[in-house]
Amino acid sequence: MINLRLLWTWDHCVQWTAARAGMHDWGASNEYPASAEDFLREYSLLVRWCGRNGIDGVVIWGLLRDGHGGVETATRLCEVAEAAGVKVLAGIGLNAYGGVYYEGTSEWSLNNHLKRHPELFAFRADGERHILLPDNFMPQPMLHACPSRPENLEYMRDGLRWLMETVPVHGVQVEAGDTLCCECTLCRERRQHPVSALSWEDMALTYGPAAEAVWSVRPEATVVLETYSHPDPAPEGEAPGFGGGAPSWAAECLAQFPRGAHVQWVGDYVTAPRNSVPWTTRAPEGFAGNIMRSHHATWWRGRGDEVAIHWLAEVAQKSIAHGFDGLSIFGDKSPFRTGCELNYLALADYGSEANPEADLDSFLKRVAAPLLGGDELAAEFLRLARLIDAPDELDGAVTAARRQAAKLEGRPADRWTWLAWYLSRWVYDRDLA
Ligand SMILES: [Zn+2]
């Protein structure tokens, strides 16, 4: 069974009003291009939809920013979510990604902390301070803290306590950082094993104190710990990057993770469409849960909004078979986009009492069919949506979707109209090339 279902977001990508301008399609660490009212409205739409449709919570990166009202707006959103029965989990980078308060004048902004204490920066191998310079999808410089410095650990604990005392969030998803590790003498001497862009030993060092700080204020808070890894073993001695397997020292690091937390894993490479690694390992026992998070249907993997319900079924089935009991997918865009709507509803359905085996056909018949005009039409919708992989069949698919829209009324017709428009984009790009 699946016990925890999460939508994962960066604030700057969240667009749940169907007709509005100015949000990003993807990326991390962008500016927030709107107001506090926009932030509250967009996320209120999201959490209320989750509450009506069986999704447990939303992870928000950039929850706290001066640009959208800081503590006050976050508090109001948490109240909306509480009324909807949905959890708000703050996305918190412990040594990167801005810390507890993503952007603003707050002392709990990691950038402000490091500017006040330049000696506490993480350092690169060449001895320079570790500041990740703007990339095409991360346009703001990202300052990194050294995880070995006790002052940083204390600052991180104080910040998390402040968060839990100040904002009524239901918990946190914390990350140690996956944008290169500190290479200072302290860190190099502390670590027994190699690093990639991420370090399992840095996770083991920081996740326990982080969770303890959260629970010292709110013992019932949900704590999710990111591993950036899939659970199958990596080759001996290898330290994979994001989405790679667990290195041979992952088990000894996991043993230091706090047991009351949920451990989060990367499902991108263990199922279709990539399927590049096997999945033989059962979930580690003793934790509150194990979440499989996937980059399906997002521009992070090149195809935003696509209908991914068949792949999500595979993620869910393999998760259940291996003892994983949580699922997380991207949730930035409005269910007006039918691909997103179907994916979110599949997230809610797979592994539930109504569909314990995460069966795709069951979902299509019970959930999708009433939305799309009937059983056969639900299966046909999925088949046509997948033809973005078959350029020669796209013209026929667009025509078929357009005809179906004309036969229906109301929202079912809108959904087929969306499909015709979605597929026609690929036709347009194909012909322009
Ligand atoms: Zn260091």
What is the structure about, briefly put?
It is built from 13 helices and ten strands. It has 433 residues and is of the alpha/beta class.
Into which percentage range does the β-strand content fall? 5-15%
Q: What is the overall pLDDT average?
A: 96
Q: How would you sum up the major sheet?
A: 8 strands, parallel, barrel
Number of helices: 13
Which structural class do the helices and strands define? alpha/beta
CATH topology (fold) name of the largest domain:
TIM Barrel
The proportion of residues forming helix, as a percent range, comes to 25-40%
Order of strands across the biggest sheet? Answer: 1-2-3-6-7-8-9-10
The tally of beta strands, per DSSP, is: 10
Bound molecules: zinc ion
Order of helices and strands: EHEHEHEEHEHHEHEEHEHHHHH
Tell me the Rg in angstroms. Answer: 22 Å
Which CATH first-tier class of the largest domain would you pick?
Alpha Beta
CATH architecture of the largest domain: Alpha-Beta Barrel
Q: Are there runs of 5+ residues with pLDDT below 50, and where?
A: none
C-alpha geometry: globular
Number of domains: 2
Specify the CATH homologous superfamily of the largest domain.
Answer: Glycosidases
Separation of the first and last Cα atoms: 45 Å
Sum up the structure in keywords:
alpha/beta, TIM Barrel, 2 domains, eight-stranded parallel beta barrel, two-stranded antiparallel ribbon, 10 strands, about 40% helix, about 10% strand, binds zinc ion
